[in-house]
Amino acid sequence: MTCTGRPFALFISDLHLQVSHPRTLQAFLAFLSARAVQAERLYLLGDIFEYWAGDDDLADPFNAQVVAAIRTVADAGTAVHWMAGNRDFLVGDAFAKAAGLQLLQDPHVIEAGARRVALLHGDAQCTLDTQYMAFRAQVRQPAWQANFLGMPLAQRKAIIAGLRQGSRDAHTGKAYETVDVTPDAIDAVFLETGADVIIHGHTHRPAVHEHGKKLRYVLPDWELDAEPMRGGWFALHADGSIVRHDFTELTQ
Questions:
Q1: Which CATH topology does 9-249 take?
Q2: Is 14 marked as binding a ligand?
Q3: 187 labelled binding-site residue
Q4: Does 63 belong to an annotated binding site?
């Protein structure tokens, strides 16, 4: 397959944007202004922020900068789509309106060429991590979210900080297989969606996996404020070809 011309879609996830990681932010802004505006579609597949406490935090200067940059891409004519991750699942309609993007359910299916592509964040397929799966089921309930969002913003941020530390501590003690997607869960997505390609993030283990005649592309996470630096995205072209790009291309 060839892959010339304007990309049909770009996919990116797991930037974990935060004030303490300014180089990662600058790389993302460069990606938006240099690459995303050239694509027909941009898919942000979760954990773009390190955390999102609620749409009433849109006025925060850091958050406002990111949202404005995404809005610039949308205003330039790129259709921008957002899928919740495990860190930013509280993004809501006010965020979507401010950023000029469309919120997607997980999974979401698109087509290009002869390919049917299922898009996921990836956390719902880590089914061996039963502790996380129970937590995920709880915090995705509308009643839980309404109760949480009803708390003062400062209180929510304090709770999130505690959850983040607890997550880091728990993650270090878990086996490699426990925090990765399971074959059965991936097979279920292929069956449910009728896709022959899956693209997801979450695991921070970029690769291309074969599932019989089907393919699974895992997006890289971004980290430019520590060594080794890493990051990148996938481009899907109208003929169905998929190409991985590295963050180093942004400085060339």
A1: Purple Acid Phosphatase; chain A, domain 2 (3.60.21)
A2: yes
A3: no
A4: no
Per-residue pLDDT tens digits for 124-169: 999 999 999 999 999 999 999 999 999 999 999 999 998 887 666 5
pTM of the predicted model over 0.90? yes
Compute the average pLDDT of residues 52-65: 97
The response to whether 202 counts as a known ligand-binding position is yes
Q: Give pLDDT, residue 6.
A: 84
What residue has token string 């490699």?
176
C-alpha–C-alpha distance, residues 46 and 221, integer Å? 11
Sheet of strand 108-112: strand arrangement: 108-112, 115-119, 197-200, 214-218, 207-211
Determine whether the annotation assigns residue 214 to a binding site.
Answer: no
Is 121 assigned a ligand-binding role in the annotation?
Answer: yes
pLDDT at 169: 58
| Residue 147 among known ligand-binding residues | no
Mean pLDDT rounded to a whole number for the chain: 93
Give the closest residue to 218 by CA, choosing from 149, 126, 133, 128: 126
Does residue 13 have a known ligand-binding role?
A: no
3-state SS of 7-74? CCEEEECCCCECCCCHHHHHHHHHHHHHCHHHCCEEEECCCCECCCCCHHHCCCHHHHHHHHHHHHHH
Report pLDDT digits (tens) over 226-249.
Answer: 999 999 999 999 999 999 999 999
Asked whether residue 108 is marked as a ligand-binding residue, the answer is no
| CA contacts within 13 A on the Cβ side of 95 | 25
